Amino acid sequence: MRSNFSILASAYRASLAFYPTEFRRQYGADMAQVFEDQLQEEWERRSIAGIARAAATAAWEIVSVALPLQLNRRISMQGQTPIATLAIVLGALETVSGIQELVYAGIIRSQTYPLVAGTLGAVAGALLLAAGIAFLVRSRLTGEIALAAACVSVPVFILIGIVTRIAGWPITAVGVLFPLLLVVLTRTQAKSPHSTPAT
Amino acid sequence: MRPKVDNASNNLRLAHPLTPAVFFILFALADGQKHGYAIMQQTSKLSEGSLRIGPGTLYTTIQRLLHLAAIEEVSGSSRATDQEARRRYYRLTASGRALLNAEIHRMKLVVHRAARMKLVPKQAG
Question: What is the ipTM of this complex?
Answer without folding.
Answer: 0.81
